[in-house]
Design goal:
It contains ten helices and 15 strands. It has 274 residues and is of the alpha/beta class. A hairpin with a 5-residue loop joins strand 7 and strand 8. The chain is globular and about 55 Å long.
């Protein structure tokens, strides 16, 4: 049984992950890319990712769900942060009697974000009453036949710049599919709230840079992105440093004012907690 929440996006030259102290990252890996202008068998990474996800083996006993993720957070296709409760609810609604376990097809979903803190998979398993949930143990690669592997490189290199495309049939490096806007952030028009939101998500998902992601989401929120306001609020609530709660409530108010129902719902919950 399969449920695609996977985000479909794009990438560029080389990247060093920011927050690596607890993830045991090392070495360098290259990503195979191509240019649609020069190569006739060149495929957009988002298209390849969708097709490869469709090829992941299906089973009545295994519920698979694809998403973009890092050790701290999970994202949907609009680059909105998904809470553990969001994902658990989505799974719970589609569970049938034959399902014996869940597999999260997303980078780092099986890895503890820091010592003593459970992984995303462990937290979702608890929310589902102990149903076994398996996550991935590093950066995720997906093959055309739906098979997958993970790596833990500290440095990622690719040829060229701009959007991420790959030769037909090549493996897709999933975090790069969401990472490209972070590379071109300085070229994004300052009033393009949507692209600024995607760039912020790229800093979190591919570069593993939560602080840069938070700054990017807050910038995009100020330019009119309700999703960015919601994301920044959740990141501040999770961080919980001095002043974070006040800032988070203001961000949720911003999202609600922009017509975002999830911002309004979370704002209502936080006001009750207060």
């Amino acid at each position: 049984m399969k449920s695609p929440l996977l985000a479909l996006c794009l990438l560029s030259p080389s990247a060093l992950a920011c927050d690596t102290s607890h993830l045991s990252l090392s070495g360098t890996l290259s990503v195979t890319t191509c240019s649609p202008k020069r190569d006739s068998n060149c495929v957009a990474s988002g298209q390849a990712l969708y097709e490869y996800m469709e090829a992941v083996p299906d089973s009545d006993e295994v519920f698979t769900i694809g998403l973009q993720a890092n050790p701290w957070r999970m994202y949907d296709g609009e680059m909105r942060i998904l809470t553990v409760e969001d994902v658990a609810d989505s799974i719970r609604q589609k569970l049938e009697g034959k399902v014996k376990r869940v597999e999260l097809i997303g980078s780092w979903t099986g890895v503890s974000p820091e010592p003593g803190v459970p992984s995303q998979a462990e937290r979702i398993s608890k929310a589902l009453g102990g149903l076994p949930v398996k996550g991935e143990d590093g950066f995720l690669w997906l093959a055309k036949d739906g098979t997958r592997r993970t790596t833990r490189q500290a440095f990622t290199v690719r040829e060229g710049a701009g959007s991420y495309s790959l030769p037909e049939g090549a493996e897709v490096f999933v975090p790069l599919v969401a990472g490209w806007p972070a590379y071109v952030q300085e070229q994004i028009p300052e009033d393009d709230a949507n692209l600024l939101t995607l760039a912020a998500a790229g800093w979190d998902i591919f570069f593993l840079c939560p602080d840069k992601a938070l700054y990017g989401f807050e910038t995009a929120a100020a330019k009119g992105s309700a999703i960015a306001a919601y994301n920044a609020a959740l990141m501040r609530l999770e961080r919980g440093s001095e002043g974070d709660r006040v800032a988070a409530l203001a961000l949720l108010e911003r999202g609600a004012a922009l017509g975002d129902a999830k911002s309004q719902a979370r704002l209502d919950v936080e006001r009750i907690r207060k």
